[in-house]
Specification:
The chain is mostly beta strands and 691 residues long. It has 7 domains: 3-181, Jelly Rolls (Sandwich), CATH 2.60.120; 200-306, Sandwich (Immunoglobulin-like); 317-381; 387-460, Immunoglobulin-like (Sandwich), CATH 2.60.40; 466-535, Immunoglobulin-like, CATH 2.60.40; 547-609; 616-689, Immunoglobulin-like (Sandwich), CATH 2.60.40. Helix content is 3%, strand content 43%.
Amino acid sequence: MSVNIRKLFIFLFIAMAICSVLHGQTVLSNQPEQDCFGAIPICNTTYSTTSSYSGSGIIPNEININYSCLSSGEKNDVWYLFRTHSAGYISFTITPVNPQDDYDWAVFNITHTSCSNIYNDPSMEVSCNYDANIGCNGVTGPNGNQGPCGQTESVISVQANEIYLINISNYSSSQSGYTIDFGESTATIFDTLPPRALNDTLSCTQTSVKIIFNEPVACSSLTFSGSDFAIADNSGNKIFPQSITYVGCDSLHPYITEAEIFLNVPLSNSAVYYLLAANGSDQNTIADLCGNFVSAEDTLATFVMVNNLSVDLGSDVYTCPSAELPLLYSPSTSATGYNWYHNGVLADTTVYYHPNDTGQYILYAYSGSMCFAFDTLVIHTLPSLQVSLSGNHLVCEGQPLPTLTAAVSDSSASISWFENGLPVASDTSKYQPVQTGFISVTAEASGYCTSTATAMVTTATATAPEITGQSLCRGSSAVLNVTNTGEGNLIWIFQNDTVAVNKNSITVTAEGNYIVVFTDSNGCTNSDSLSVHTVDVPSEPQIFCPELSTNGNTFTWQPVFADSLLLSTDGGFNILTLAGNITSYTSSASVRSIQLTSANGQCHSQTVESPQCEVYITHLLSPNSADRYFTISGLETPVSLNVYDAQGNQVYSKADYQNNWYAPQMRQGMYFYSIKAGKAHYLSGKLLILK
């Protein structure tokens, strides 16, 4: 029969007896002591309780049934705690108030470990009993009394300063309680000494002190402000906590083993500090679980100061003249004072320092009188690479842009080309730009400052010359002129031969294509050409005597073969241009003469002036005479005509005569005329009319 079945059988057998005592008993459930962290301390030889527990507390399954003898795990259980103060063995006996009750138990060594490890570490269980109550009045425990009931185990061998937990489970689920008796133990487990803390070291940058107690401290003896503690230096000066935190002191942990005190300033002015007990705001000092209080002003622990202040400025800095120097500081240093030295001279006293020059920098950091550290950093200036381009370049329009070559002092340098600020090529010492503008090359190499050289590539266009000139008149010469040029050289070319140099005009006698090439001061060229053709000189016009008309004097001339005619009157400066096929010109009566030139382009004939004709008056009108009309010429206008017969009778009169009377009504005979020309020129004479 298995142990569980056996225990169940016995439990059913005694159930009736247990029921009779349930009434009036105190049932405890979900109590702190039902979890390992809230274990009840054993402070006396015997411990008795008339109450029983129900359930397994707030934290279930703290015992692993896969390796513990407690096959039911935690069942209506409670935890107890004791500490050994000397070596020996532990013997305890559990005696139920009701002899029919069945109590099981297990002992765990939690020295240097914690409750949370019990479930996973089988080695922590040092003794255990899960036997049924079969007639020994339920007495059980590791007392070495190997009776017939099987509920006892061997005593437990222990060393000094060990911590043990006892779990007691009430398999019967009764409410009668029990007594635990440690009287047969040889090891001292009853605590009569107040708690102390472990000595430790302090670093000079600390603003808190971690306290580890040598035994659990009852939360009921603590204040939550930290007023139970003070820290004193070698001179007795006290520093009181600003705040405190505890590991424990909650519904599951009625005691602590650790605390941390927080201070306003680092502990850095004394070689040794002392943790003192004080009467807190609750009017008492701290106590262990057995009620042993520490005396006020007692030293709980000693802390030795360790200078852990460090300064790390990092590696030396290598910089370039144009670069901004880095901000100097030590990121791992928390000090109260800082002294920066530049080349041995105090330069600043702040946490951060922005240098403005190269050289040696030392940071001395300190905190109080016990903590100090320093570090040195040197800012070096790197040499600059030597990089150059072959100066600026001016390219004549239409010519290819030049290939630029970068000369770098270190052949291992990496080269980058930029065209008007945009990257265009790399890792080559030559580059031909695709457009004009700023071309720069940057060289970089380890151990050197980056250097840049820049060249300007521009294009230029020479001024376009312009040839003007006269037509080449046959048998003569023409002058060609060049304009629109600046500083530079001129070359005249005719039939692939140079005919003139640096002349603004030339005289030519042969027709053909003339070219002028202009080279400006930048070496850029431009050109112009003019095709010169031979032009015939037209013949001189032949001008007749003017004729009077109602519109004034009419000048006529023989037709000429010319492109145009140039006409001026009375030697005036106003020249009229007439078409070459015009053969007459009528002017006002005041015009006495004209000048006429025939022209083919710029080729002109000699200028001819109209003849100064004599006064002519018709003396004979007949069908066979030279004059068909009575003609008057050579007189100024207006001309007034009066004709009389032999008897003196007026037969014709015209105030503004225009050479248009032929005497149609007159008889044959002799007649007389009277003429007034201009304002006061009078003439008279005879006119013979024959029919």
